[in-house]
Amino acid sequence: MPGRLGTRHHVILTVSDLDRSTEWYCRVLGLTVVSTHLNIGPPYLHDNKYNGLFDLSTLSYVVGLTQHADPLVSTFDERSIGLDHFGVEVPDLSELHAWVRHLDELGVNHSGIVNAPYIDVINFRDPDNIAIELCVINDDFWVPLVTAKMADAGSVSVE
Q: 51, 59, 74, 133: most buried, per Cβ within 10 A?
């Protein structure tokens, strides 16, 4: 088995207009630009413009936005090979309801809260049509499945 994975970090998205997308992510998701291609951006983005957006309330790097000098297409389509959507977990259902109100106030089209046995989600899109999901995980659904899987693998003993 490989080393363990952490629980969160970031996704880097290619956008068509870095300034427009940066403004949108900061306004809609409450993020703040901390790193750019001019200071501490990823060393492998040579000819790209880049902004790293953080949630300062949790000191978390959430999303990086990059604008390539030579983009291949102008809008996102999840049917293409690559990213389908990215999801960000929120603490609980009351927070998810607060996001619905926030998105409504900003005029951002969204799915409303969609309930499934394993998760509650809100789906919406950024200015480049990239699909975003805010979610609350239903631990009552997942914990028994994960515990049973770990027990089957011999990782833990369940008494």
A: 51
